[in-house]
């Protein structure tokens, strides 16, 4: 349970971020965050994160072609595509369906599509991970989800939807930041930053133990690796990476 020092430091942080809390109270922050701030800041942080995670992603996605469907084509759906920083890792000829709850990433997305013309882009759906109703059951070979499960409303519903749209034998790929070891300083700071971070970064939760959700989901096999990506001054160092097979 958060101790007194956590609560005190949380209050200090809230004081520093008080203009944002005020704007949120007035109903101004959320729409501004969604349209302007979050896409902008995500591009900045994303660039740094992409550098740090590049070799992990190359390794993670190296076996994507193994999951091609009977037709020899890989049908891939990405949950929370954002501006499309994963496109570079997908194999040539892959058919990509992009989904994101926030339609305001178009600029970065168009840029990354132009850069990655080895892919076939099927459609862009504005949809939450928990509700992919527009996607037929069993219609994709692979679902990709990176740095998204931290901010969905329900992790278990999102994983259920991912499993629903996957064909039997298809795979769910993930790379996510997670809660640190409870006895560590990192976890202490995650707890301190939690409320303000969640407000500033569009609902991103710092202390989710996502490996537990993945273990509870109904995958026939699951490969999870705990890794550390040093992000200076940011409480998102511990990550998990891997894939589960339906």
Automatic annotation (TrEMBL):
Origin species: Pomatorhinus ruficollis (streak-breasted scimitar babbler)
Gene this protein is translated from: Mettl7a
Identification of the protein by name: MET7A protein
Pfam families: Methyltransf_11
Keywords attached to this entry: Membrane, Transmembrane, Transmembrane helix
Listed InterPro entries: Methyltransf_11, SAM-dependent_MTases_sf, Thiol_S-MT
Claim: Transport is one of the keywords in the record: no
Species lineage: Eukaryota, Metazoa, Chordata, Craniata, Vertebrata
GO MF terms held by the record: S-adenosylmethionine-dependent methyltransferase activity
Domain Methyltransferase type intervals: 77-174
Ranges annotated as spanning the membrane: 7-29
Statement: the UniProt record of this protein carries the keyword Hydrolase: no
PANTHER family named among the record's database cross-references: METHYLTRANSFERASE LIKE 7A, METHYLTRANSFERASE LIKE 7B
